[in-house]
Amino acid sequence: MPTLFGTNRSAKATGQIASSEFAKITLGGVISLGQSVNGSYTRNIQTIFEIGNPNVYWLGGHEQGNLQMQRLVGKRGFFADIRPGACGEIKPVAINVTGGTCATGSGGLTIGDAILEAVSFGMQAGSLEITDGATLRFASLSRS
User: Exposed site from 40, 72, 116, 139, fewest CB < 10 Å?
Assistant: First the structure.
């Protein structure tokens, strides 16, 4: 039977999508109380044209990415799980997802040659949470 909006909808069984509930973020150490992680991986593309030719040519450039994460500050204090080495290098950096009670998806991302670019912290009136975070730059991204 159509819904109020005139569409027909059916629900799929659970176990189709990986859940953030079973994800693990590693930035030198496993991130505890993680709240969010966002990243991107890009490369410069230069467009090449030729006089007298209607074709377009693409020249792929250098790849790089960035990752931002936020976590709740726990009993170990600010930036407890962010462990940069020499010159701000962070190893290992990875995001792994494993199936949980109902989820069947799994996999991971390995981030190579990461360096700490910035740290952040925040609190807000009316909210009990205190957060800290980090921004990383990295040179490679692969599936693991």
Answer: 40
